[in-house]
Task: structure prediction
Amino acid sequence: MKVYAINGSPRKKWNTATLLEYALAGAATQGAETELIHLYDLTYKGCTSCFSCKLKGGKSYGRCAMNDGLTPVLEKLAQADALILGSPIYFGTVAGEMRSFMERLLFQYLAYTKPPSTLFTRKIATAFMYTMNVSEEVMKEFQYPVHLGMNENYLVPRPA
Ligand SMILES: Cc1cc2nc3c(=O)[nH]c(=O)nc-3n(C[C@H](O)[C@H](O)[C@H](O)COP(=O)(O)O)c2cc1C
Result:
């Protein structure tokens, strides 16, 4: 079993990375092969809306056609058995690099059916870890659960 964790913080040893390391260590005790990927080590952009991943019969149908530092990561994640995303909260939502990563990860698998479905062929376990410094009260006041709840929706698989 291969478990990947994605660190969306520029800091490789602080809050987010520490939690992800603990999660991977736990998975390793159950026999998982694990890997922690630091997004800030990579050079990449968010989705450029080329729509190659939506072209039925095209060579990039169902996979991101962009070619940059994120490409080998997306290829690895296509084979993952479990995926843990981690991000610090910046201005009420996930950090920019995590956002760009999510655009690339998720859009390639989005099928324009009614209702929308996924081209990802397997069901895998996913988790999202957030680190932040506001109190729970402020978190609610500023609608954090709404923003973070949307991430959960996007990761929940729907049958094709
Ligand atoms: C640019 C920036 C914006 C931030 N915005 C928020 C915020 O809106 N709400 C919050 O609770 N914490 C905010 N923080 C604090 C971080 O989310 C928090 O310290 C986080 O745990 C840092 O993660 P790291 O140690 O993995 O880098 C912000 C930090 C930075 C640098």
